[in-house]
Design goal:
6 strands, globular
Length: 132
């Protein structure tokens, strides 16, 4: 059975909580917890410069026993987040996530303007709803 293409733009989390590179990991983790987010874009001067994920925190801070109160976001963020255009469909976004080994994608428009973020869990739920 062929599923209809569901556009990614319908799943963008616009205006997500964002972190700054000079914030502490503890501050960013609190922000993520309050927003129920697994990742936050890292912005500087209105420009996207990276992404901080719960995976970054667990593998680069907790596992290495660094102090989250003194470790800065810039020290552990991923500075080349995987990006995707908002005109793509959900299936292609899931394929990109799988190929790149990420759980979140930065969504941008054709001009490269930051629009928001999508999480794999949201997209997987959409795919299951299409099948069922």
């Amino acid at each position: 059975m062929k599923m209809r293409a569901v556009r990614l733009r319908d799943f963008i989390r616009p205006n997500p909580a964002v972190a700054g590179p000079g914030e502490t990991v503890q501050s960013a983790a609190s922000l993520m917890a309050n927003a129920s987010a697994t990742a936050v874009p890292v912005m500087e001067g209105g420009r996207l410069i990276g992404i901080l994920t719960d995976r970054d925190i667990s593998q680069k801070v907790v596992a290495k026993r660094l102090d989250p109160a003194s470790t800065l976001v810039a020290e552990i963020m991923s500075d080349d987040p995987v990006r995707i255009s908002d005109d793509r469909d959900v299936e292609s976004a899931l394929l990109v996530m799988r190929a790149r080994g990420v759980q979140e994608l930065i969504v941008q428009d054709f001009a490269g303007t930051f629009l928001g973020i999508v999480c794999g869990c949201d997209l997987c739920n959409c795919q299951w709803e299409e099948v069922l």
